[in-house]
């Protein structure tokens, strides 16, 4: 029985043109369009310094045993330029899953779009200044095992969010979100419209034309009492 110790070499088909459009949208705007429930927990943060502000790619998923990166190595040898490798690590923080050597291979040889780890990295001084998107929970000098078992391209859970092979992964300085592949096309127009709407709200906040009437209206509807006196 290979369940729990297998690699699927194929994923659902995806659209490169769609991906390029998502690369223009901040993660926050997309998340708001999805009712704010597709965001990875903020324990997973960007630790590098990519010049390109937004990471976008299709997920290669890795289900790793705690502190073990054998299946991450397998995924690296499969990944291409439009892929983001996303690794589940059983919540382990005791060992780094990768360091400078593996990241150099991912970035320079495989030229993938980015990496998201539910676990630490090491060689943090080198990785923190790298022009390549790396999201992780922090750093740890302890290295990983390479024993397995694990899986590649099966459903996983990372940062409290389900991730399936081929899902669209968006990351920026705010964090990482997951757009299910089957929803990506339908969501794009809404996300683009919301991004324009949000930019308008920012400008109104700057120039003093923002309509704040909704605040008092909401407070009144919730029965908040305003008392014109000092609290005693």
Automatic annotation (TrEMBL):
<dbReference type="InterPro" id="IPR005493">
    <property type="entry name" value="RraA/RraA-like"/>
</dbReference>
<dbReference type="InterPro" id="IPR036704">
    <property type="entry name" value="RraA/RraA-like_sf"/>
</dbReference>
<protein>
    <recommendedName>
        <fullName>Putative 4-hydroxy-4-methyl-2-oxoglutarate aldolase</fullName>
    </recommendedName>
</protein>
<dbReference type="Pfam" id="PF03737">
    <property type="entry name" value="RraA-like"/>
</dbReference>
């Amino acid at each position: 029985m290979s369940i729990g110790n297998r690699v699927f070499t194929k994923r659902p088909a995806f659209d490169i043109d769609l991906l390029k459009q998502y690369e223009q949208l901040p993660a926050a705007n997309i998340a708001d369009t999805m009712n704010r429930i597709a965001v990875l927990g903020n324990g997973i943060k960007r630790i590098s310094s990519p010049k390109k502000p937004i990471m976008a790619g299709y997920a290669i998923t890795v289900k790793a045993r705690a502190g073990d990166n054998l299946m991450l190595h397998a995924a690296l040898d499969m990944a291409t330029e439009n892929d983001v490798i996303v690794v589940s690590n059983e919540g382990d923080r005791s060992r780094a899953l990768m360091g400078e050597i593996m990241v150099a291979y991912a970035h320079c040889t495989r030229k993938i779009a980015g990496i998201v780890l539910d676990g630490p990295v090491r060689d943090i001084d080198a990785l923190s200044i790298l022009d390549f998107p790396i999201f992780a929970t922090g750093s740890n000098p302890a290295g990983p095992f390479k024993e397995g078992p694990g899986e590649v391209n099966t459903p996983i859970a990372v940062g409290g969010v389900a991730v399936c092979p081929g899902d669209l992964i968006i990351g920026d300085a705010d964090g990482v979100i997951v757009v299910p592949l089957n929803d990506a096309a339908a969501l794009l127009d809404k996300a683009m419209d919301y991004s324009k709407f949000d930019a308008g709200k920012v400008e109104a906040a700057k120039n003093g034309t923002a309509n704040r009437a909704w605040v008092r209206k909401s407070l009144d509807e919730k029965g908040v009492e305003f008392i014109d006196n000092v609290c005693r």
